[in-house]
Amino acid sequence: MPLPSDIEEIKRQVIADIESHAEWREEVRRGKMFGFLITDSGETLKAYSGQIQGRSDWPGYVPAIFDYLQPDGYFKTHEAEITALNHEVNKYKGINAKGDERKHLDEVRKERKERSQALQRWLFSQFLLTNHKGETDTLLHVFEQYARSEGLQQTVPPSGTGECCAPKLLNYANNHGLRPVVLREFWYGDSPRGEVRHHGKYYEPCQARCQPIIWWLLSEELRMKSEEYPEALNASRYSSLFTLHSSLLYEDPWLIAINKPAGLLSVPGRRRLPNAQDVIGHRVIHRLDMDTSGILLAAKTDEMFVAMQRLFALHKGVRKEYTAVLEDGASPSHGTIKLPLSPDFLNRPRQCVDYDHGKEAITEYEISGNHALLRPLTGRTHQLRMHCAHLDGLGRPILGDPLYGNATAERMYLHASRLEFTHPITGNTVVIESPAPWKD
């Protein structure tokens, strides 16, 4: 098994090779995922996602699973027909089509949709995947099997499936009788506009495109080794629970608040981990990310649960404060961040900044050195983490953030430290505090 220093040296060699291609420079500088796979014989395979300069066959890198870019091939021919339909639809842009024009536009849109879906299915039926046993199947069928086993509604792969580094590398290794022992993907270049990606940082294969087909490509042995192929979560990190008594922060006849440790799920989920609802036996009113510690409030009655959910949803009469440690960097000492957020559907649970369709997200902050006090005025998923990490926000990820950060740490340094609200029954102001579990 290669040592971590060996793996880092291989990454440096791949980066050096990338930078030796002067003709790639402008394209890859804008950001691209690269990957490498080390076999049990010590051989290293390299790959890049998608294409570079329209090519998926650059020497020294594993080729595409299926090269559909031949100029006169089936895909390009039918793609051109769909493009012609797009042009026809665009003729009506800004025009309120009526009568025969409206009928024609609807027919063109219907034909475009049908042709696009048919071409997509044809494409994925041409991708032949080979598993570690030497068995072959189409990407389309492998994806469908996974989707049905997981109860997913989408049984057709999203665009770009099979073109990422991990599937390319594993499929090539399986086709050539090579046994993978280490697989890594890292980002090269600038971060995408709406996402948070750090140059040179390792990332896991994407959830929507890669996960549904990697199960077919990987051997059972490699799937079980999280150090060679990291799972989205290593449950052993969070094997220890805590006692309710030592974590109790507040209690009355209607409400209870505990000091949630990092690693405890706020609500029941698919992951085989303890969750706060199991621990306290009541309905959790709001969520904290699994890696976030601090104040978590639950209702003892259904009536109080509904009342408090309404209070939190309206963000009236509720004031939340979080303590965080940020990665090194420069930022204003105080201010307000307004970055609209929406889910990254291809890489759940990641979020992205979406100026066109994102939901309003507002955070007030105060910073002293690397320590920050964060006050969310809205309650979007990963709001504080994205507002800290994204370049249009602070550009300083929370230390130890496994999704958006760039520096490793023993935990994510984000703690819900203060919660203030108006009690729906008594009308009194309730203040619950929990100091951060680390020293300033």
Number of helices: 12
Shape: globular
Helix content: 25-40%
Mean pLDDT: 87
What's the oligomerization state?
single chain
What's the SSE pattern?
HHEEHHEEHHEHHHEEHEEHEEEEEEHEE
Number of strands: 17
- Low-confidence regions: 226-246
Sequence-ordered SSE layout with sheet pairings:
Layout: H1 4-20, H2 25-29, E1 32-39, E2 44-48, H3 74-90, H4 99-126, E3 128-130, E4 136-138, H5 139-149, H6 165-175, E5 180-188, H7 211-217, H8 220-223, H9 244-247, E6 248-251, E7 255-260, H10 276-280, E8 283-284, E9 293-299, H11 302-314, E10 318-325, E11 334-338, E12 341-343, E13 351-353, E14 362-368, E15 371-376, H12 383-389, E16 414-422, E17 429-433
Parallel strand pairs: 9-16
Antiparallel strand pairs: 1-2, 1-5, 3-4, 6-7, 7-9, 8-9, 10-15, 10-16, 11-14, 12-13, 14-15, 16-17
Helix pairs in contact: 3-4, 5-7
